[in-house]
Amino acid sequence: MKRGINAFLLSLAMMMGTVGYTAHAAPSAAKNEATQTRPESSGGAQASKSQTAQDSVLKASEEGVNINTATADELAQALNGVGGKKAQAIISYREEYGPFKSIDDLKQVPGMGDALVERNRAWIKL
Fold first, then answer.
1. Where is the composition biased (Polar residues) (predicted)?
2. CA dihedral defined by 75, 78, 80, 83, rounded to 10 degrees?
3. CA distance to 3, 11, 48, 65, 70, per residue, from 77 (Å)
4. Per-residue model confidence as pLDDT tens digits over 4-28
5. Are 94 and 67 in contact (CB under 8 A)?
6. Smallest Cα–Cα separation from 74: which of 92, 53, 100, 89?
7. Could you confirm whether domain 53-126 is CATH 1.10.150.320?
């Protein structure tokens, strides 16, 4: 009889653990759905503007990025290891010294080392 009760309690505890896990997972899925649909329902002009910006960043990351014409957001999204500050440094350097003539010129930008440029060479275009 003790063995049967222990087995019952063990199986009950295992079921409760599964129910608890499912209960924690369900709100996350609902939250993700809500955040994914929110921009579309917020307004036509705002949503289309946001979608256009996302499309251009996605296109830049798939095809590469032109360091002479890209925005800071496009640079940050397309290049591995380049965040907002380094992307802005690239743009500032470009504005001060003119367009880049070679990919190796990017190494002159503060914060852009040899390894970072080499890691992204395949994605960088002039």
1. 33-55
2. 40
3. 59, 48, 19, 9, 11
4. 777 777 777 776 665 554 445 545 4
5. yes
6. 53
7. yes
